[in-house]
Amino acid sequence: MVDTRLCTVIANKAGVKVATVEHLMAALHAYGVTNAIIEIDGAEVPVMDGSSDSFVFLLEMAGVVPQNASRKTIES
């Protein structure tokens, strides 16, 4: 058994969960991406080398396009 309590898990209202999103989210944040469609066919984001480097590479290959739309924010 492996302890995974330190990973980040997100879920929707339907109870669908995705784990280990932290490196992907870090790469998106670093590039200022606030609107993206991410398709995942498993219970967790691939860990790869344990950093965001692979996601940064993919963002650089795909490119980032500015959008002329207002951004929704969550306030607590």
Element layout with pairings:
Layout: E1 9-11, E2 17-19, H1 22-30, H2 53-62
Antiparallel strand pairs: 1-2
Helix pairs in contact: 1-2
Description of the molecule:
This protein has 76 residues and is an alpha+beta fold. It is built from 2 helices and 2 strands; from the N terminus they run ββαα. The protein has helices at 22-30, 53-62, and strands at residues 9-11, 17-19. The protein has a two-stranded antiparallel ribbon with strand order 1-2. A hairpin with a 5-residue loop joins strand 1 (9-11) and strand 2. The longest helix is centred in the last third of the chain and has 10 residues, at 53-62. It is globular.
Short description:
This protein has 76 residues and is an alpha+beta fold.
Helix fraction bin? 25-40%
Strand tally is 2
| Largest sheet: number of strands, sense, barrel closure | 2 strands, antiparallel
How many H/I helical runs?
Answer: 2
- Shape field: globular
State the strand order across the main sheet: 1-2
Q: Which radius of gyration do the C-alpha atoms yield?
A: 14 Å
Distance between the termini: 36 Å
Sketch the topology as an H/E string, one letter per element.
EEHH
**Mean pLDDT, as a whole number?**
89
User: What percent of residues are in strands?
Assistant: 5-15%
User: pLDDT below 50 for ≥5 consecutive residues: which ranges?
Assistant: none
Structural class based on helices, strands and sheet pairing? alpha+beta
